[in-house]
Write a structure and sequence with these properties.
The chain has about 450 residues and is an alpha/beta fold. The protein contains 9 helices and 20 strands. It has 2 domains: about 5-380, no CATH class; about 380-430, no CATH class.
C-alpha cells in the first residue's frame, strides 16, 4: 500500500471534516463513490502510459487539513512571494499556500465576485452546493472524488449577469514546507449570462519543496459569457494532479492558455462540454519536461449541441530521460451537426532518451461536421540548426533559440503583456540549463 492509498483510507473511513457542515452532503457522496473506485493502473485506458504506483510509492505524504498559518509563516511566505509573483500584473490577487488561503497576502476585501466557501452567505452556499460535482464525466474520476471526499474549503468566483470584470483574478498557489503534504485545491467559477472575466492561475514552489497537489476546477460559462483562463504551472518539484471540467452555454466562449513545466508527475485532465448552440472553445498549451520528469495531458471536447467550434493547439518539448503523454479526444454527439473541430499536437524530442506518447482521437456520430486532428514527434530541424551555427551561434544556444521558437505560437497568445514576459523569462532560463545532446 503506498502513501496515497493510506490517505484515501484515512479520508474515506477515519478522517471526518467538520468545517463547513453544509458541505457534508458533497463529502458523503464523494466518499461513497470513492469506495467503488480504485487507484488507476496501466490497465486503466487513460493511464496506460504511466506507472502511477511507482511514481507515487516514495512520496512521504501526509493529509493536509485546512488551518490558519502562523504570522511568522506568513512573513516568510511574503519574502518568497517576491520571487514568484508576476511583476507588473494589475489584478485581484488571491494567495493560497499548501492549499490554505492567506488573507494577509491577498486582496480579498477589494476583490469583487469572489468568496471562500467558508465565508459564503446562505445564497452563495446554495449556489455552491448546486454546482459542485455536476461536471461532465466526473464520477469515474478517482482523484476528483478524492478531492471532494476531503473538501473543507474552496474558492467561488461568481461573475454576475452582463458584468465585465475590469481586472483579472490572479490566483497564486504556492507549495512550501519541510515535509511534503497532500494538499487539496478546489475552484468553482460561474460566469453568468453575458459576463466576461479573465482568470490567471499561477502554481509555483519557490524553494523547490516537494509535495502533492490535487486540484479540481469546475467552470460554468453560461449563455453569451466569455471566460479567459490562463494556467501557469511552474512547480517542477511538486506532484500535481488536476481535474478541470468546463460546461458552456449558448454562444459562450471559453479560452484557455496553459504553460506547464513537468515534475516527478504532473497530470492535467481537461474536459469541455459544449452544451449550447454556437459555443466556441479555444485551448492552447505547451509542456516542457526534462531530467526524469513525467507530464501527462488529457483533453476531451464534448460537442453536444450543433453549430459549435473548438480548436486545440499543444506543443511539447521533452529532453534528457523525461516522459510526456498527450491524449486529445474530440467527441461529436449525434445532435451536434455543423460542428467545426480541430486538434493539433506537435512535439520535439531534444534527446535520444526522451519519450512521448501522443494519441489524438476522433469519435463522430454526426454526418454534417468538419473535423481534423494531427500529431507529430520529431527533432530539431538540422538545416535550421546549421543556419544559426553558420551565423556564429554555438550549437547549444542555437538549440535553445529553436526550442523557444517552437513553443512561441502558444506563449505569444497569452493576453497580458506582464504574464507573457514573465513566462518567456522563466522558459528562457529553463532552456539555458537544458543539457542538449551534442551541444558541443
Amino acid at each position: 500500500m503506498n502513501n496515497l492509498t493510506s490517505i484515501t483510507t484515512d479520508f474515506t473511513h477515519g478522517h471526518q471534516a467538520h468545517k463547513n457542515p453544509w458541505l457534508k452532503s458533497v463529502r458523503d457522496a464523494a466518499r461513497s463513490r470513492l469506495k467503488g473506485l480504485k487507484l488507476p493502473t496501466q490497465k486503466t485506458e487513460d493511464w496506460k502510459y504511466l506507472k502511477l504506483e511507482k511514481l507515487l510509492v516514495n512520496e512521504q505524504l501526509e493529509a493536509q487539513s485546512v488551518r490558519e498559518l502562523h504570522a511568522k509563516s506568513a512573513d516568510d511566505i511574503d519574502k518568497l512571494l517576491a520571487q514568484s509573483l508576476i511583476s507588473g500584473l494589475d489584478g485581484y490577487r488571491l494567495v493560497f499556500v499548501n492549499g490554505v488561503f492567506v488573507s494577509k497576502l491577498s486582496h480579498i476585501n477589494s476583490t469583487p465576485y469572489s468568496v471562500l466557501f467558508s465565508e459564503a452567505n446562505p445564497a452563495q452556499q446554495a449556489l455552491i452546493v448546486a454546482h459542485l460535482d455536476t461536471s461532465h464525466n466526473y464520477y469515474n474520476d478517482y482523484f476528483s472524488s478524492l478531492n471532494s471526499a476531503q473538501l473543507e474549503d474552496g474558492l467561488l468566483i461568481h461573475i454576475p449577469q452582463d458584468c465585465i470584470v475590469d481586472k483579472p483574478f490572479y490566483i497564486v498557489n504556492l507549495t512550501i514546507g519541510e515535509r511534503p503534504k497532500a494538499n487539496m485545491m478546489r475552484l468553482l467559477i460561474i460566469a453568468e449570462r453575458g459576463s466576461k472575466a479573465t482568470l490567471i492561475e499561477h502554481e509555483d514552489a519557490p524553494l523547490k519543496h516537494a509535495g502533492m497537489v490535487n486540484t479540481v476546477i469546475e467552470c460554468f460559462v453560461n449563455d453569451k459569457a466569455h471566460l479567459i483562463h490562463n494556467r501557469i504551472q511552474l512547480d517542477e518539484s511538486v506532484t500535481s494532479l488536476c481535474s478541470h471540467r468546463v460546461k458552456q452555454g449558448r454562444s459562450s466562449i471559453y479560452q484557455q492558455h496553459q504553460i506547464s513545466l513537468a515534475s516527478k508527475l504532473k497530470r492535467n485532465d481537461i474536459t469541455v462540454s459544449l452544451q449550447g448552440e454556437y459555443g466556441r472553445t479555444d485551448i492552447r498549451g505547451t509542456f516542457c519536461a526534462r531530467h526524469q520528469q513525467t507530464i501527462d495531458t488529457h483533453t476531451c471536447t464534448e460537442h453536444i449541441a450543433p453549430n459549435c467550434s473548438s480548436n486545440e493547439v499543444f506543443r511539447g518539448l521533452v529532453d534528457n530521460q523525461a516522459n510526456a503523454v498527450f491524449n486529445g479526444r474530440i467527441h461529436i454527439h449525434p445532435n451536434a451537426q455543423k460542428t467545426l473541430a480541430e486538434l493539433s499536437n506537435k512535439n520535439l524530442l531534444l534527446s535520444d532518451l526522451a519519450t512521448i506518447n501522443t494519441k489524438p482521437e476522433l469519435e463522430i456520430y454526426a454526418d454534417d461536421v468538419k473535423c481534423s486532428h494531427g500529431a507529430t514527434v520529431g527533432q530539431i530541424d538540422s538545416e535550421s540548426l546549421f543556419y544559426l551555427q553558420s551565423r556564429g551561434i554555438p550549437r547549444g544556444e542555437a538549440k535553445r533559440l529553436l526550442s523557444l521558437a517552437f513553443i512561441a505560437e502558444v506563449v505569444d497568445q497569452l493576453g497580458e503583456n506582464s504574464v507573457r514576459d514573465f513566462v518567456t523569462q522563466r522558459l528562457s532560463s529553463l532552456f539555458t540549463s537544458l543539457q542538449y545532446e551534442g551541444a558541443n
